[in-house]
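This part of the workshop introduces the protein records we will be handling. A record pairs a protein's sequence with a compact description of its fold. Backbone structure tokens are a discrete shorthand for how the chain folds in space. The question running through the whole workshop is how a given chain folds. The record below serves as our worked example for the rest of this section.
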Amino acid sequence: MTANRPPVRRLDTYSLRLFIAVARSGSIARAAETEHIASSALSRRLSDLEHAFGTALLVRSPRGVVLTDAGRRVFERGMQIDEELQSLVREVQEQGDEVRGTVRLYANMSAVVGFLPEKLSQFRARYPHVRISLHEADTREVLRACLDDRADVGVGVAVPPASGLDAWYFASDPLQVVIPPGHALAAHGAVDFAQVLAHPLIGVHQGGALDRMLHERAEALQQRFNPEVSLSSFDAVCRMVEAGLGIAVVPQSAVAAYGGSAGFVLRPLAEPWAQRELHLYALRRQPQLRTTQALLQVLQGGGEQLPG
């Protein structure tokens, strides 16, 4: 005789995707933030999923969550199911007559400020049925979002891409020194980084890619990059320089966006590493979503519109 088995309950693929995000991050709160859903709603989804399987999938504690044995099985198979569903979406979109949907774009601050507004305006004009979900993030988070399939396209500082990512040149964004008028360095045609370090400094985005680079380059000179104040936006940095509170090193794109003032002067940072580039990143997959292809084409300056 065949043993009686309970009927299979209906499984929600969105709840499964949320469970995968929680398992990866080890935290309901972090997963809720990355998936843009309230923690309470995500918790309800997890409870429904556990009810559907008829067993606990997670052990919850103030420190986060840990997978049960059943949870590990669901996580492993769930990732396979999610990839198959994403592949199905790509296949269907490839056959569609029109490019439509949502494309997820993660970009660092200088790209958002200095390059993307015009590019995204051009993209929207070409593909009015595609919604752009834009998130500003540090370059490290941009790369992580691409690897975790939370971003379809990333824009960040050029770094050796991790295995599984493709990368393309996007823009040149050299570093500039922002100096108050009358400052001793204003008379120089270009400024060495050692000279910059000899003056009071204004920093930007503590812990970000630029901040880490400047700390590393100062250590290479056996000096310290020690800003008197660190701010979260380039316009705030420029305002502090205008007020004479220090000098700053910022990308050229940021100065172009906020530099309409006579309250400061600009000088190139005379270091080979100051010739910074921005790259585009995307998870390596075949085929790419048509929305992803379309955005990459526009960001790379492609003139032809995808058929549809």
